[in-house]
Structure formats: structure tokens, C-alpha cells
Amino acid sequence: MKKLFTLLALVGVLSLGYQSVAQDESVDTTTTESDTAAATTEEPAIEETPVAEEEPVVEDMEGDRSFHQVVKDKFIEGDVTFMTPVLICLILGLAIAIERIITLNLATTNTDKLLANVEDALATGGVEAAKEVTRNTRGPVASIFTQGLMRMSEGIEMVEKSIIAYGSVEMGRLEKGLVWVSLFIALAPMLGFMGTVIGMINAFDAIEAAGDISPQIVANGIKVALLTTVAGLIVGIILQVFYNYLVSKIDSLVNQMEDASITLVDLLVKHKLTGKA
């Protein structure tokens, strides 16, 4: 009997220990799973601080551009095909006008000083000394004087004819190139107007193709038309100013030649009479 009670007591103790261990493991497992689930579900909330976006700084590009850049952009917008001939007229016209201005300024002579030197030479050394003075002086007036003095031996009438004939030659030299400047003055606006007509034709073609009249459709053609016209008129105005200056300069030189020629004839007559006396 003691062995039986001892066996039953041992079995009871073992069974109670097993149950307590099983309960502890189940509690630990449940706690671990609940903690893991809580950890996965409860994530810390991270507040995002709104970042203020910087507004783009819009610069006034129109005001920052130079005059050269503006002209370049308008030249491209006006269509290079039509603007290039107008630009060529401006370049060639200015080149000829500047060359003529330099030539005419170099041809200007102090006629009063030249006449005084010729008179002194006639009084001291005669006609040959006067020729030497005029040959060493630059300008059309001095060239006319030289031609007149070379005909002194043939008489005063021949001197006058020689001065008149050679004066016409010098006038032709002074007016050299003016015909080209006048051509470019007339040609530049005509090329601009041609660009205007072609631009308007392109605008109407765009309207016909689209079947609608809207500013977006006709703006390109109208812009070409207006820019080419403006370019042609500007070139014509610039060249016209240079042309008028050249004409006035030539008229001034011609008047100097005529006045100086008359005075020279008077000096030669006076010298001839003095020589006879």
C-alpha cells in the first residue's frame, strides 16, 4: 500500500509540474505575440514639416538685353531671307558714303591761302613758280589751277576754257559713287515692301489652310511684313542723311572751284599786264 500511495503521489506531482510549465509557456508565448503585434501596429508618427517652396525669380529679360541683342532678335524674327538684302544695302551704302566723306574732306582746300601763294609765286618767280605751288597742293582747286597755268602761253581765253573743261572733270570725280548711294536709298525700302507683301501672302495662306482667322495664325506673317518694312525705311533714312551731306559737300567744293577759278584768271590777267608794263 505504501508503494501504491507513493506512486500515486509521484504521478500527481509530475502532472501538476507539467501543467504549470505548460501554462507558463503559453503565457510567455501570448505575451510575446501581443508585444510583437503592438510593436508592429503602433509605429511612431513622424510629423512632416512643410517645406516652403521658393518662388522662381522672374527676371525682366527684356530690360536686361542690350540694343545689339534686340536688333539681332528682330532681325531673326523678320526672316533672314528678307532682312539680309536690306542689311546688304545698308552695309554697301555706308561703305561708299564713308569713303566719299573721307575723299571730299581730303579734297577741301584753303583757297584763300592757295591764291595768296600763287600770287606771291607769280610776282617772284612767274608762271613756273606758280605751277610748282599748285602741284604741291592737294585738292581739285589746285589741279584746276595747274591746268590753267599750263595754258598760260596760249592766252587768257585758252586758260578759261581749260579751267572750265577740267572743272567738269573734277566735278565728275567728286560725284563718283553718289549714284550707288542713291540706288541703295531707293532699293532698301522697296525690298522692305516686298517682304511686307510676301509676309501678308503667307498670312493669308495660313488663314486659308486653317479655315479660321485667329491672331496665332496670322501673327507670324504680319510680323515679317512689319519688320521688313521698318528695316527698309530705317536703312533708307540713314543713307538719305549721308547722301544729303555728300551733296552739300560737293556743292561747297564746286562753289570754291568756281570762285577760285575766277580769281585765278584775274591774277593771270594782272600778271600779264604787269609783265607787259
Descriptive notes:
- With 277 residues, this protein is an all-alpha fold.
- It has one domain.
- Helix content is 84%, strand content 0%.
- The protein contains 10 helices and no strands.
- Helix 5 packs parallel to helix 10 (215-276).
- The chain is rod-shaped, with a radius of gyration of 52 Å.
Which key phrases capture this entry?
cell membrane, 277 residues, disordered N terminus, mainly alpha
Describe the secondary-structure layout.
Blueprint: H1 2-41, H2 61-64, H3 67-77, H4 80-107, H5 111-124, H6 126-135, H7 140-150, H8 156-174, H9 178-210, H10 215-276
In short:
It contains ten helices and no strands. With 277 residues, the protein is mainly α. Mean pLDDT is 75; it is low at 1-7, 29-46 and 54-60.
Class from secondary-structure proportions = mainly alpha
Number of helices: 10
Taking all Cα atoms into account, the compactness measure Rg is 52 Å
Percentage of residues in helical conformation: over 70%
- Major sheet description: none
Order of helices and strands: HHHHHHHHHH
> Roughly how many Å apart are the termini?
197 Å
Regions with little confidence, pLDDT below 50 for 5+ residues? 1-7, 29-46, 54-60
Oligomeric nature of the chains: single chain
Mean pLDDT across all residues, rounded? 75
Would you report the number of β strands?
0
GO cellular component, one term: plasma membrane
GO biological process, one term: protein import
Protein name: MotA/TolQ/ExbB proton channel family protein
Transmembrane segments: 80-98, 178-204, 224-247
